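Reply to dn_fold:

You asked what the input looked like. This is it:
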Amino acid sequence: MASRTVKLSQTLYALWWVALLFVHLVAATFFGFFAYFYQFILANKFNYLATSLEENSIGMKPETYPTIAFFHGLVALPHGLVILRMLTATLFYRSFAYTIEPLDLKAPMYSLLGLKRREKAEPAKLAAKVLSSDQALITGLRRLAVKIRRSVWVKSLFERTGLFGVDGEYFHLILFCRETFETSLQTNQAYRMSYYLPRDVINRFYVGLIVLNCWSTPLILRLYKRDEAKKRFICLICDCILDLVAAVGIPCAIIATYINDYDMEIQGFPMSFWYEDIWYMHAIHEFQILFVTSWRDLATRAVFSISMIITMSDIKVLLGTRLVSRARENQVVGMELISPEAKVSAQKQKSTEITASASAPTVKDIFSAASPRTASSRVTSMRLESMQNRLRTASLALKNPTYRRRFTQFVHTFVILWGAIVLSLHIHAESMPVLTQCLLQVLIRHCPTFEMPPTLQQFSNLKVLKVYNSSIAEWLVDSALTRTNHPKMKSLFIARVNMSGGVLPPGLLSPDFPPSLADVELSTTNLRELPDDLDTKWPPGGQLMFEYSEFTSIPDVVMRLLPYLLSFCGNPIDAIPVDLLALKSIRYLHIGDNQKLKALPANAILSTSLIQFYIERTQIAFFPSWLDPVVNVTLSQGRRLIRAVGIPYCEYAKPIYNRSLSDADAMAAVQAKTKTPAMLGPGGPSMLMQTSTSTRQVIYGAVKCEEGTEWTFFPLATEDEQSALR
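and this is what came back:
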């Protein structure tokens, strides 16, 4: 069979070599980066980005991150090895090459290992040696096994003229089946992108690429019907481009949008970004494309990635193993040019081998003494031969001019119709008006007397509802948030809002309250009490914020809601319930910015699940001993438990945070300060109240007193900036 190689000039060959190397480099970098990102950043238990993704139901569960990282590393590895092989081959030949020919590598390896090449033994002596030794039989079996593997698996399947080879007899049939499968996955990917990506440019580009790929197939087959090598080469190029865009290009385009917003210090996006209306809506949808969201999504990415590697390998085969200079144009890499003398030598060698085989053991003789492994190889060989026979039968049918013409027409019609359908659906979707059921976010701003309309119940895909700088005069049951009408509701934000009577309106107290609405944030309101049966209506285990409101105590119903994040920052509360501190569900507790809070309870049990305790800008000056067990836990995890900026304790312990002072000088300065009566009780003192030299690092590692670290969970300043009247 004649070799099908694309004939290129030295310049074009070099350009293709550089282009393929660049693609491998981009792919290796991309998949390697994602492997590192999933394994060492997102898999971190306290990573802020991982927490944000989980809260917004983006991606898979954190326990799957190591598996996802392993997959990306597994895909990056072949690209890295191919890069190494290309560079090594280029240095070896001192010209552009993709791989080193085994025959060219044999002599340097012998020289490197200091071995001498053995001369060929005479056939008669070799046959006698084989027949006279049991060890030779074992060696023959091993060689036969290797030969079977090479001849059956490699040659029949993966070599250039094999079943899946680029010069294979069934190349176009297999390519058509493979592209049909991949295009179906890419069409599904385009649907997901049109559903999630809010930026029209990326959607249109990807859909256009799919349509062009479908329509280019019949065009390529017609333009290059007389040049089989170029026809296959261009088909592979189109396939590779689409796989590259699907697996690498689209995620990179999304990453480029957010790279400037990423904070390396916290290894995530600052909290204020998650409260910006446009940024948030873009992020929670575009991250569905960027991150792996299901095992099916991971399998789809695997198909694109593996297909890209296979396609690039076939492209290199069509380009030739390496570049040969013009002075040696009579040498074609990958083919044997046989001179007349060589032919005579080959015929002589062939006759000698036939003579030797007369006295050597036959394959049948060896199989008669074969091991079970050899028998298994024979079964595998028979199965592969049967598969080839079936494909050969199909191929003979396709070689019939009538059947071949009909099959070609079917392929052309199929891909053209597929492209037309994808394009038509995209145009139809873009021409559709904005439907109420498609709205994801509702913003209500600057309404002095607001009455929630029943229209709210038509927004079945609503995820975020925000009311800012308004007075809610009426929010009745007929416009309530319900599981039936708002099954995807995620967050409720109410800021700078007055509510009638200082209580929650009926529209937020439906018995059919959405269970997915686990993020309720109120800031700067006149709310002063909560219904006692709120735990029977609102879902448990969420995050609740009632910041800068008019609560004088923390309602008991809050404990029954089992929040993992709770904030009563800025409320005139004078005592913390002991039951709240022992709540096992709570991880973040904020009771700061409250001058009425003068002391912590004398006796309490603090939950070990607590990660951060905010008491900043209060009058607390004494830390009781019940803090110590949790302080020790957080110190072992490298976290600072207590945020205490602006409290009397921090004024007393100020020398501890002066890094220019030694431990002895800092604690001596603390001892010199006069303790106030508030710093002497109630309850037993914590180790944070000690003044020994060894205590300095404990206090510094547990209590955050540095100015500028004040914190409120709801970023009111950010909301004021983006929602102000203009």
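Confidence is low (pLDDT under 50) at residues 129-133, 326-374.
Hope that clears it up.
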